[in-house]
Amino acid sequence: MSTINSWKAFIKAQEIFVKQYSEPFAIEFKKTDKAGLAHFTIEQRSPLSNIIHSLERSFPGILQNDIIIKDGYLLYDSSRSPQHTDELKEVAEANYFEFDYKPCFSGHVSLKENPYKWLADINEQQPNKEGQIVATLSDIKRIDDKIQNLTGFTRSAVIGGIFKIQPSKYYIQKQYEIASTYLIQTLGIQSVSNHGHFANLIIQDIFLKEPALNFIKENSAYHKSHHRLIFTIKEDLFQNFLDTRKSKKIFFSSEDKKNDKMGVILPTPINNEFHLTYESNITLSDFRFEIFHYKKVFERYFGPDSFTIKHQHIFQIDRSLFLEHFQNSVQDERFNVSVDKETVSFDFTNEDELNSGIEYLSALQIADIDNKGAEHGFKIKLQYGSPLLEIQEELQQIPAIKTKLSNNGLKLSFFCFFDNHDLLQLLVAKIKDAIDPLLNDNMQYVFEELQEGKLKYFLNFKQEEFEAEINSKFNYLRGEEISIWDAKKPAAFGAISKINYPNIVIEMESMKEEICIPAISTNVCCTLKGERDKIKRLSNTIDIIFSITKQKILNDSLRDILMDSSKAKSFPGDILRTAEYQKSINEIDASLLSKNINDRQKESIAKCLLANDFFLIQGPPGTGKSTAIAELIWQHIRSNISVKKEPYRILVTSETNLAVDNALDKLRSKTHLLIKPIRFGSDDKLDKEGRRFSLESLKQWVLFGNRELTEDKSATNILQDWIALISNRARSKRTAVNSELSEKWLTYLTNANEQLRPLFFNNYIQNANVIGATCSSIGKENSEQKFTRFFSDYCNVVHTKEYDAFRLSINKNTIAALKKKNIEFDLVVQDEASKASPPELALPCLYGKKAVVIGDHRQLPPMVDTAEFIDNLKMMSKKTKDEKNRREISDLISYIKKNKEEFSVSHFEKLFVGIDKNLKSSFNVQYRMHPAINETIKQFYIADGGLECGIPDEIANSENMSHPLNRYHGVTANRKTHVIWLDVASPEIKSGTSRVNYGEVQAIDWLLSYFKKSPGYKSFVDYWPSGDIEQKQIGIITFYGAQAGLLNKLKDKYPEVPLRISPVDRFQGMERNIVIVSLVRSNSIAEFPNQAPNMEAYPENGYPSQESLGFAEFPNRLNVALSRAKRLLIIVGNSQHFRKHAIYNRVYETIQQHPNGAVKTFDAKSLKQ
Questions:
Q1: Is 263 left (phi over 0), alpha (psi -120 to 50) or beta?
Q2: What angle do CA 198, 204, 206 make, to 5 degrees?
Q3: Dihedral angle computed from the Cα positions of residues 823, 827, 833 and 839, in that order, rounded to the nearest 10 degrees
Q4: CA 745 – CA 741 distance, rounded (Å)
Q5: CB-hemisphere CA count at 13 Å for 52?
Q6: Which residues pair with 698 in a beta bridge?
Q7: Whole-prediction pTM value?
Q8: Based on the number of CB atoms within 10 Å of its own CB, is 692 exposed (0-12), middle (13-18) or buried (19 or more)?
Q9: What are 413-466's pLDDT values in tens digits?
């Protein structure tokens, strides 16, 4: 039972996180905009409410008025002592409060005059807390001229351009063309028109059936629709009605907002028309009843034959779909598209760069860019070197002091802690001695007096950290369905279109009057249906694997193998010595899809071809997994072409869209189309490589040919590739005899018309043999027992006849016919499986006769693997107010602690270790990293036989960078250095559930300033084409989101240095030429930034010691971080702390001893190595 319980624990962890995000919150209606979107404000609760009960237990009898959060302290009766409890500190930390049980006194130093007052002559704004203002280009020039003569002021070279966007006429017309062409030409509906700037599509007096509605939704941006009934009353009768209605106690709904009118309430008319609106999902019978009902109502008040009835079905373009499409269309990394704010932004340093950016966006054609020209405001950042910084530095040398400088640098607050009242005068004297020598005429300072009979205690709310987490949470909810909260059955009323906390915009098919009332608060929640559907599929997977449901699977052997891989049936002896293996190798050599397959990859593919049920491949970073996966797929198809009449079908899957798209893209061949891939999933979530094979895109092409909307006019889909292949063959066989016929044939192919396109599409679909989809999408039914998008697409391809009947008429018979069909593949190929939990890894295998699972257990495992995860669960437990949730979290923590072994090793690793050697293989040659970086990464693969570099030294080190395998950089003083450990001994600091290390931020700041000044770095960046941003970027990777947040601030400081900064989990699958890794964890821990060391209390480091490596306890994460670098790797961290772990010690020693490696020490005070 322990195995099944462990599998269930992974799902329980997912359920807990889903519950966290689906907790109810309150919103209040503000307005409805022109696009019909409803704007609300999220109710902001006082942060104090989360810790008040714990405070009251520690400070019995404390008054609410004595808790002064904005000033960072509380007051308490000096005759009483607080009750010291661990609970208060833990709860405070979980809710972003800093607290100390020691009493304190406080004061502040401030500037007498606002140093920004000179701005008033140029721009009426004052900088925000980040130092930002909005200014026109002419104002920016005046500001630059002014600050040249001012002390302490600089302007960041980066200027931020933010532009509102909306659908262009071209985009709107294209959407209308798609929908109206289908309605008019396919369905024969003539009463189709459009209205307004955004071309609302209107169908008169036609009630569309569900297949037609689905077609419009799936093939155009008209996702929103509603029905409107218009009763037009004869004018004379209507005027008479208006004159007499109130005497008859007849009111309009607009007059009854308070629901207090006694009488008949009718809809509010527009002139002499009554408009009634209904949601798009109303049934025909219900709609007929509404017509009948209101016909009777209006006959009662106006008489028979006194009015006409008109029905309109109105479709609106979904702006969020447009924005997502625009976001996907902008391939250039210079640009950031905000779906929430409906803006596109990019940074520039001069007008040429500004004009270049606007030209790029305009060339896309699909959006109108709101550029106000000379009046357009741009974001700039003014930096002020506050004279208070020097005072802060001096004060922080006093161990008993905490300081806080305001964001604008105008006020420095300090809090001084004491144990003994007798020391107060001494501490005051120390503070004066620190401040007085640095005071000037524009400064003043005061010590704040205590109230009589009260003591002050430090209580600081970390607003920025709180807002970062709350924004992260709510951004996760964007696009989700939102419901009126009900413990038993939440009622959905719309979808979240935009969130910029505390503002939220909701798209509703029709207005819900009960929540669209100003000043009325409504509790709402997001049910996260997609995540719950995934959890249901994973739970079903466990039931199937452990035979709880007795449900059959395609290959029953896989049931046992997925639990215990040693049960997989293998060859006797060594397969490499068999005739079957040698024959397989010879066949592979004779039919290679790619000439870049190395010997180990060929060995793996040959062994895999001979495996009956299951095969595992370990693919370390840079070893060409995507190329090998494509070859493996091709060899399986090739070897089964003559065996089956039906296509030999393969499912290619991974948890990420990128991995699936990369694998499919490698399958393209210039000489044949024996491999016919199809990509399932929404186009909006796919990269351009995936959209080339997308079922959705191919359907669009069939309907509209090359007129379909695409951001890349040179991009072709796989059907166009097929046509090009046939055309090339025709050209090569053209002779003088058949020249005229060949030209006609080529012209016919080139201008593929509406007769030819369906022929290619239908033939391709019937013979499609590779299907790509993400793991989480696979399944037959969702939690509502409706068919999933995956199953619908699968039936469209595999069971076309039954699917077409279902689309034409959704009824009991067509539903039953599809329900009898199952998802079946001859082979399932799953990539990145080391990141999958046991049920996630098992789920795709249920649908295959054979499974090939690829991963690397030396890289990122599932999230349930460290003490950090348990810490996160504990934090959630302290935040939740639901006792049941708290118990569930507590039970899960207990289970993980008791079964630590089960969670410390990924399921992929368990399978890989347990399976027979004939059923597994490891790629052992990488082509990404410089040989010196490879030697560093090799330390993580010693147990697997090591990792070799496939790049010859002479190519890697050549100063001629034109070869694709060249790894020269030339940016450091010693140009032969490719790996550096920059030793930093600064303490780490807790930041909510995360960690930061300010010393490492300083070190990376220094590194970037070095690169900025380095001629070698400039030459390196200038070598690459201007649009090739990935080659130019320095990747900065860390293990903690809070540290990434601090590092992101360096982007403004170094606009000349392109940066990509993110936590390690988001960097897997990426690579950069230069990578800096911030390790964060240290052997000491401070309470707050710039805390002075206390050598008396902590003689070893000046701070309390700590032993944990956090996420790095498992070397996999560090392996991922370090292996992203191609040319130069710089590790920034505390070597003394990390070298306690044997593998990190080997990494350090390898760098230290390698001729292309170097170890340096960073001294923050002197800024010298």
A1: left
A2: 120
A3: 40
A4: 6
A5: 13
A6: none
A7: 0.79
A8: buried
A9: 999 999 888 888 999 999 999 999 999 999 999 999 878 899 999 998 888 778
